[in-house]
UniProtKB/TrEMBL annotation:
Ranges where the GspD-like N0 domain occurs: 16-73
Pfam families referenced in this protein's UniProt entry, alphabetically: type_II_gspD_N0 (PF21305)
Superkingdom as given in the UniProt entry: Bacteria
The protein's name in its UniProt record: GspD-like N0 domain-containing protein
Coiled coil spans: none
Transmembrane segments: none
InterPro entries documented for this protein: GspD-like_N0 (IPR049371), NolW-like_sf (IPR038591)
Residues annotated as signal peptide: none
Organism lineage string: Bacteria, Pseudomonadati, Nitrospirota, Thermodesulfovibrionia, Thermodesulfovibrionales
């Protein structure tokens, strides 16, 4: 991995969502991480995520998948 790729991977983002629909957060995470996410119309509901400090892409993805697990998706 080049230095530029490492820097981009460690780039930090603010990951705060208040009352946001799950599909919108999934789209954000997909665009942020360049990962393909597959979900159907059963993924619904609004959630709030508050992260006190910016997260790198890997941590943001882990937080999102933790939310899905907690909600039994």
């Amino acid at each position: 991995m080049s230095a530029a790729e490492k820097e981009k991977e460690n780039e930090r983002v603010v990951f705060n969502f208040v009352g946001v629909e799950l599909p919108a957060i999934a789209k954000f995470v997909s665009e942020l991480t360049s990962k393909n996410l597959i979900f159907d119309d059963q993924l619904k509901g609004k959630i709030t995520i508050v992260a006190p400090s910016p997260l790198n892409k890997a941590d943001a993805f882990r937080l999102f998948t933790s939310v899905l697990e907690i909600l039994s998706y």
